[in-house]
Design a protein that fits this description.
about 160 residues, alpha/beta, Rossmann fold, 6 helices, about 40% helix, globular, binds adenosine-5'-diphosphate, ATP-binding, Rossmann-like_a/b/a_fold
Length: about 160
């Protein structure tokens, strides 16, 4: 069985991520979406909340499994039988970071292949960071995140969305 893994912080999941899951899931038998905490970013949602939003918004993808993960990605992937890391690539600015990460991963775990899927042009400007910034100022979010996530953001920043 070919198992892929989409690691990320997903704080929160966006339509850009979901587009990558839909396309990535067709390349593997099982796709694990693994929520990692990112020590360099101040989170808006807890790991449990991010996991729950992912579960809710990926129900339509049959071969997906959502999980919270910790520790090293290579160890997590290998212990779950995943040998393909699937990442989305938006702009040139993503490239440098992803290129370094993919090479580092190859160095520490040669059995794992990192595969990139080019962002859908519709979502190439969407990032979780941008969404968090918009939401904390009460900005419009339609079309960028699933409705479920939009509601969760509006609840989280409810003082900003009062009319
Ligand atoms: P990280 O904190 O590791 O960057 P993210 O949750 O921000 O994790 O992103 C996880 C993956 O999804 C990364 O490969 C990222 O490039 C990709 N991604 C994020 N936003 C988009 C988007 N709008 N379109 C395509 N891929 C995206």
């Amino acid at each position: 069985m070919r198992i892929g893994i989409c690691p990320g912080s997903f704080d929160p999941v966006t339509n850009g991520h979901i587009d990558i899951f839909e396309r990535g899931s067709k390349l593997v038998d099982k796709l694990i979406v693994a929520v990692f905490s990112n020590p360099t970013k101040q989170p808006v949602f807890t790991m449990a909340e991010r996991e729950e939003m992912l579960r809710e918004t990926t129900k339509h993808i049959p071969n997906i499994e959502v999980a919270s993960a910790e520790g090293l990605l290579n160890e997590y992937a290998m212990s779950h039988g995943a040998t393909i890391i699937i990442r989305g690539l938006r702009a040139l600015s993503d490239f440098e970071y992803e290129f370094q990460r993919a090479l580092l991963m190859k160095q520490i775990e040669p059995a794992i292949e990192t595969v990139f899927i080019m962002a859908n042009t519709k979502y190439s400007y969407v990032s979780s960071t941008g969404i968090r910034e918009l939401a904390c100022f009460g900005g419009k979010l339609d079309g960028m995140v699933p409705d479920y996530v939009e509601q969760r953001l509006k609840t989280k920043f409810k003082d900003k969305y009062k009319v």
